[in-house]
From TrEMBL:
Protein localization: Chromosome, Centromere; Nucleus
GO terms under cellular component: chromosome, centromeric region; nucleus
Signal peptide: none
Keyword vocabulary terms for this entry: Centromere, Chromosome, Coiled coil, Nucleus
Domain of life: Eukaryota
Residue ranges, annotated region (Disordered): 169-203, 246-290
Compositionally biased region (Polar residues): 169-182
Keyword Hydrolase: no
One of the protein's GO biological processes: mitotic sister chromatid segregation
Protein name: Uncharacterized protein
PANTHER family: CENTROMERE PROTEIN K
Organism: Penicillium subrubescens
Length: 347
């Protein structure tokens, strides 16, 4: 069966209109209001179709009920009447058979177009489903990792608590088996061990503090005492700069003589022959500042929370106040004491 030119043109026009509609929809996505209005129109169309189906069902029911009056009569007395009815029925069936169907023929391209449209729609829905599933899978994996980490933490905490409970039980059992004198000796031994560890840690901290003062803090303290930058503004201050001094504006003075290169071996011999940490005879301003800082810290540590009298307003005292380590007396700036950090622990 050949397809007419008119049918082909209609199909081509339908395809073009559909492509244009898809392009317009991809360029300008529908807003929420337009989608809502489109859904309302679809609901109205569906209601109209359902109403039409209901009316046709009612008409079909009425037609079936009235079929007895229009069907073949069961009256066998008049044969010509039966022949007339048979002829009318045959004519009606022939007219129905001769009518052409509204369905497309087997060689029509309309079923292919409909199948293509349905397939395209299914592919798009599949792609959207894949994207949604991928996002959900990523979120589920992230949640799974978090839950695994929480489970590991919970197991570690549970294990630690069980070990702690077991140690406490063992200690209680051991104490119950010991006499009061044995318990007292064990407590004293543990306290001595703790005191020894604290003393060792204190010595290490004191050595680290002395090293920091000698290597890093002393040059900056000497520079501030000479009218130079405040401690922390200039991290590297050489002995030559300290020897030259600073101007009234806090700038380093120009060195009149070239700086002599110190011999490392000679310096090491001097350190053996003439120790520089005794504080009795400092060789330069850096060592003098370091000695003053050591003496101030030692005096504050020995005084505890009591005030000490300052010989002068030095850069070391000002630095300790700025660092929130010490504080001046509210009414006398010549007195200084350490801030009582451990008051709450001691109470």
């Amino acid at each position: 069966m050949e397809i007419s030119e008119e049918t082909v043109s209609k199909i081509q026009k339908f395809v073009q209109n559909r492509q244009a509609a898809e392009k317009e929809a991809s360029q300008e996505p529908f807003s929420a209001t337009a989608l809502h209005a489109y859904a309302r129109r679809l609901d109205g169309t569906l209601q109209q179709l359902q109403e039409q189906v209901r009316r046709q069902a009612d008409e079909l029911k009425k037609l079936r009920e009235s079929r007895g009056s229009h069907g073949l009569s069961d009256n066998y007395d008049d044969p010509w009447m039966r022949v007339s009815q048979a002829r009318r029925a045959k004519k009606a069936y022939d007219s129905l058979v001769m009518n052409e169907d509204d369905l497309p023929t087997t060689d029509s391209v309309l079923p292919s177009l409909i199948a293509t449209e349905e397939t395209s729609q299914l592919i798009n829905e599949g792609k959207m489903s894949i994207l949604v599933t991928a996002d959900k899978l990523s979120a589920d994996r992230e949640r799974f990792r978090i839950e695994e980490a929480n489970l590991r933490d919970s197991r570690a905490i549970s294990s630690g608590l069980r070990d702690r409970i077991q140690r406490i039980r063992n200690a209680n059992t051991r104490k119950q088996e010991q006499t009061p004198s044995q318990v007292a000796r064990e407590v004293v031994r543990e306290q001595k061990k703790k005191n020894k560890g604290l003393d060792h840690a204190s010595d290490g901290l004191k050595k680290s503090l002395d090293k920091f003062i000698d290597e890093s803090l002393a040059p900056m303290l000497a520079a501030e005492d000479l009218g130079g930058p405040t401690v922390g503004d200039a991290l590297e201050v050489s002995d030559a700069t300290l020897k030259a001094g600073y101007t009234a504006h806090g700038k380093p003075k120009k060195q009149k003589e070239p700086v002599e290169q110190e011999d490392g071996k000679q310096q090491r011999i001097d350190q053996f022959l003439r120790p520089s940490n005794d504080g009795s005879n400092p060789r330069n301003k850096r060592e003098a500042a370091a000695t003053e800082a050591h003496e101030l810290l030692d005096a504050l540590l020995e005084a505890g929370t009591s005030y000490i009298d300052l010989k002068r307003d030095s850069a070391a005292s000002r630095f300790l106040v700025r660092a929130k380590v010490a504080q001046f007396h509210p009414r006398d700036a010549r007195r200084l004491r350490l801030i009582d950090f451990g008051r709450s622990l001691g109470d």
